[in-house]
Specification:
One of its GO terms (molecular function) is protein-malonyllysine demalonylase activity. By secondary structure, the protein is α/β, with parallel strands linked by helices. It has 11 helices and 11 strands. It folds into 2 domains: 152 residues, TPP-binding domain (Rossmann fold); 106 residues, SIR2/SIRT2 'Small Domain'. It is elongated and about 60 Å long. The protein binds zinc ion (ZN).
C-alpha cells in the first residue's frame, strides 16, 4: 500500500508541480472531436501510449463488476478481491476468479483490441512504437496480437504462490479439478467450500504453497517495476490515447492528464465524458469498437 501511495503521490506531485495546461491544441473551451485533425496528429506521432480500461473489456462481452453488473452472488468485487477476503475464504475468492477466468477463455477480442494490435504491428514496420498500458486483467490485448502491453492491475491468467512468490502463466480450464463446474454467479448459489489443499497449489518442488490469482487486490501495492516502465512510456510518448476508461481509478486516472500537462495531445475514446475530459485535446464519444478503428486505420 505504501508503495502504491508513493507512486500516486509521486505522480500527483509531478502534476501539481507542472502547470496542468490543456496543451497547445486545446485553446477552445472543450476538447475537439474533429477526426481529420486527430488523424493529422496521429500520422506524425512516433511513440504512442494507449491507456485502456474496463470499457474495452466490456465490448468483448465480459462483465466489469462495476455499475449494474457489480455483483457475483451477493458480493461486490470489492468484498472479494482483497487480501483479507482471500485469507479468510480462499475457496470463495477462487470460485469468483475461476468464474472470471472461464468467461475470459470463452470471449474473443473486440474491434477495439484488434484496431490497437494492428496499429502496433503496422507502425512497428515504420519504426514507430505503440505501448498499451492497461487496467484490464483479462488477456484480450495479447490475444488480439498486441506485443507491448503493461498490465498495471495484473493478469487473471497468471497465478502467484503465496509461499514462494513464483508467478506463472496458467490457462488451464478448470485451473484445478475441485473448481470444475464451480463459480456460478447466481445470488442463491452456495459456496463450494473447497478444502484449501484442493485449491490451486504451487508445483515448484518442495513448495506446494497456495496459489492466488496474480492480480492486484483492492488495497494492495501496484507492481513498482511496471509503474516505472509506465512512467518512462508516459515521459517519451508524443501522442496518448485514453480508451474505455472512466478515469476515476488511480493512479491510471492521472496518466492522461500527466501527459497532457507536457503539452502532448491526448485523445479520449469513451462512451461518455469523464472527470478528466477537460484536460484532453480530443474526445470521441461512442463505443471504442466504433470510434477507434477509423482513428487508427
Ligand atoms: Zn511456491
Amino acid at each position: 500500500m505504501l508503495l502504491q501511495n508513493r507512486a500516486i503521490i509521486a505522480l500527483g506531485l509531478r502534476m501539481c508541480s507542472t502547470h496542468v495546461s490543456k496543451g497547445p491544441l486545446v485553446d477552445a473551451a472543450r476538447p475537439s472531436s474533429d477526426m481529420a485533425e486527430f488523424r493529422k496528429v496521429f500520422s506524425k506521432a512516433q511513440h504512442i501510449a494507449i491507456i485502456t480500461g474496463a470499457g474495452v473489456t466490456a465490448e468483448s462481452g465480459l462483465p466489469t463488476f462495476r455499475g449494474k453488473d457489480e455483483h457475483w452472488r451477493k458480493w461486490k468485487s470489492q468484498d472479494l478481491a482483497t487480501p483479507e477476503a482471500f485469507s479468510r475464504n480462499p475457496s470463495r475468492v477462487w470460485e469468483f476468479y475461476h468464474y472470471r477466468r472461464e468467461l475470459v477463455l470463452s470471449k474473443k477480442p473486440s474491434a477495439a483490441h484488434f484496431a490497437i494490435a494492428e496499429c502496433e504491428a503496422r507502425l512497428r514496420k515504420q519504426g514507430r512504437s505503440v505501448v498499451v498500458i492497461t487496467q484490464c486483467i483479462d488477456d484480450l490485448h495479447r490475444q488480439a496480437g498486441s506485443k507491448h502491453v503493461l498490465k498495471i492491475h495484473g493478469n487473471l491468467m497468471e497465478t502467484r504462490c503465496v509461499s514462494c512468490g513464483h508467478v506463472t502463466l496458467n490457462k488451464q480450464s478448470p485451473i484445478c479439478a475441485a473448481l470444475k463446474g464451480k463459480g456460478s454467479p447466481g445470488p442463491d448459489v452456495a459456496d463450494a467450500q473447497i478444502p484449501v489443499d484442493k485449491l490451486p497449489r504451487c508445483d515448484k518442488s518442495d513448495c506446494h504453497g497456495l496459489l492466488r490469482p496474480n492480480v492486484v487486490f483492492f488495497g494492495e501495492t501496484l507492481d513498482s517495476h511496471i509503474l516505472t516502465k509506465v512512467e518512462k512510456e508516459l515521459e517519451v510518448c508524443d501522442l496518448c490515447l485514453v480508451v474505455g476508461t472512466s478515469s476515476i481509478v488511480y493512479p491510471a486516472a492521472m496518466f492522461g492528464p500527466q501527459v497532457a500537462s507536457r503539452g502532448i495531445p491526448v485523445a479520449e475514446f469513451n462512451m461518455t465524458t469523464t472527470p478528466k475530459t477537460e484536460y484532453f485535446s480530443y474526445h470521441f464519444a461512442g463505443p471504442c469498437g466504433t470510434t477507434l478503428p477509423p482513428a487508427l486505420a
